[in-house]
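Protocol step 4 of 5: obtain the predicted structure for the target chain.
Materials: sequence only (see below). No template structures provided, no constraints applied. The aim of this step is simply to have a reference model before the mutagenesis design in step 5. Sequence pasted as it appears in the construct record:
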Amino acid sequence: MKVKYIGKTFGIEGLTNGKIYECIGIEDGMLRIIDDSGEDYLYSAIKPASLENINLCGK
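Step 4 output (structure tokens):
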């Protein structure tokens, strides 16, 4: 499944505003997304955010 991130861009290994990502699974309300690092990580389905700065988030 493809998902589009809309929000503040965070990090070179995070999510970029307006970019479409591959979602490879859903686990406990979280989306497993292959982000800009090329690795898969869990992000909130409702309010994805940087773990280092919670103010950098989107939808």
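Step 4 remarks: The first strand starts at residue 2 and ends at 4. The chain has a mean pLDDT of 86.
Proceed to step 5.
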